[in-house]
């Protein structure tokens, strides 16, 4: 995917494959025997991804701060699937480092092939900045929490760094993988910002920016080596524990909610297709996934977002 120059002389830095074909049949056979690490895999979207990988025959390491991931991993393992749980806070470099090492040890040939960054937190409304500040006019403001940015953005950055490092270290390990993969989980809020959620929007726009940086060099591990395929999943509101307290308000506002299964379908389309690289998949209710067209040809997802908003999010 070399750099090209358009007829107008403008350098095209897309470095991405053509848009994902959603009419294509998904074949998960190639995932069997691969080694995958999924952050935020104890519940919600991350659990959906981890389960899909395990059911396809991959060796899956679930990384999550919540201890209920242990029970979930054991349930999957009881079905004969290759799954382990590592409790770790993605905000901690050392914790992630140990999780990555455990994932490599868990695989029969000590490989690492797929890294999925699904750990995430919801944002804090800027209204809270006023409500929680001192009423004394002479007092200094309290520092804001950075948890959302630390988990969603810094945690993903750590995961990417470790993924590239261990992809290079395990490049010659025997595995069925034709390429190494990073699948970043962002949000449609990384394209159409949500009101007042500065930390959440900023973190998701940031994850999108990291995808664009990564996709520019699929030969990151060296010429003639396995490529690093990078893709992004951008869900809208999905029925998970994260938004459970907001479902009533969303229903009142007439805002449809998607299902984890919709996310899994889009995820499998990018993770199983060696021809897909540098694409962003939007997950919206009712009709599942669609390609965001996040490239220069389509005005940096401008066309894709317009079609999505008019045709599916609000157009039925």
Strand and helix map with partners:
Layout: E1 4-5, E2 11-12, E3 35-39, H1 44-55, E4 59-64, H2 68-77, E5 83-87, H3 93-106, E6 114-117, H4 127-131, H5 147-169, E7 180-185, H6 198-215, E8 228-235, H7 247-252, H8 260-271, E9 280-284, E10 288-291, H9 302-313
Parallel strand pairs: 3-4, 3-6, 4-5, 6-7, 7-8, 8-9
Antiparallel strand pairs: 1-2, 9-10
Helix pairs in contact: 1-8, 3-5, 5-6
What does this structure look like?
With 316 residues, this protein is an alpha/beta fold. It has a single domain, classed as 3-Layer(aba) Sandwich (Rossmann fold). It contains 9 helices and 10 strands. The chain has helices spanning 44-55, 68-77, 93-106, 127-131, 147-169, 198-215, 247-252, 260-271, 302-313, and strands spanning 4-5, 11-12, 35-39, 59-64, 83-87, 114-117, 180-185, 228-235, 280-284, 288-291. It has an 8-stranded mixed sheet, with helices on both faces. The protein has a two-stranded antiparallel sheet with strand order 1-2. The longest helix is centred in the middle third of the chain and has 23 residues, at 147-169. It is globular and about 65 Å long. The protein starts with a strand and ends with a helix. The model is unreliable at 1-10 (pLDDT under 50).
């Amino acid at each position: 995917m070399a750099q090209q120059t358009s007829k107008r002389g403008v350098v095209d830095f897309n470095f991405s494959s053509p848009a994902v074909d959603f009419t294509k049949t998904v074949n998960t056979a190639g995932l069997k025997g691969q080694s995958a690490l999924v952050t935020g895999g104890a519940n919600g979207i991350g659990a959906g991804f981890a389960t899909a990988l395990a059911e396809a025959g991959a060796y899956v390491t679930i990384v999550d701060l919540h201890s209920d991931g242990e029970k979930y991993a054991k349930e999957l393992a009881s079905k004969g699937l290759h799954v382990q749980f590592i409790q770790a806070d993605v905000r901690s470099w050392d914790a992630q480092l140990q999780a990555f090492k455990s994932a490599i040890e868990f695989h029969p040939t000590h490989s690492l092939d797929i890294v999925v960054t699904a750990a995430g937190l919801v944002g804090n409304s800027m209204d809270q900045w006023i409500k929680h500040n001192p009423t004394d006019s002479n007092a200094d403001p309290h520092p804001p929490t950075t948890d959302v940015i630390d988990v969603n953005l810094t945690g993903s950055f750590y995961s990417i760094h470790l993924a590239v490092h261990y992809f290079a270290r395990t490049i010659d390990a025997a595995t069925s993988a034709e390429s190494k993969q990073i699948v970043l989980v962002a949000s449609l809020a990384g394209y159409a910002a949500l009101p007042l959620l500065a930390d959440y929007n900023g973190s998701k726009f940031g994850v999108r920016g990291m995808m664009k940086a990564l996709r520019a060099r699929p030969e990151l591990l060296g010429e003639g080596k396995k490529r690093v395929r990078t893709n992004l999943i951008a869900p809208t509101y999905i029925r998970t524990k994260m938004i459970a307290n907001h479902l009533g308000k969303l229903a009142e506002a007439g805002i449809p909610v998607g299902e984890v299964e919709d996310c899994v379908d889009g995820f499998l389309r990018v993770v199983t297709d060696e021809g897909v690289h540098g694409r962003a998949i939007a997950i919206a209710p009712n009709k599942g996934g669609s390609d965001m067209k996040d490239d220069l040809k389509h005005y940096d997802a401008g066309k894709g977002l317009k079609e999505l908003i008019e045709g599916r999010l609000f157009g039925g």
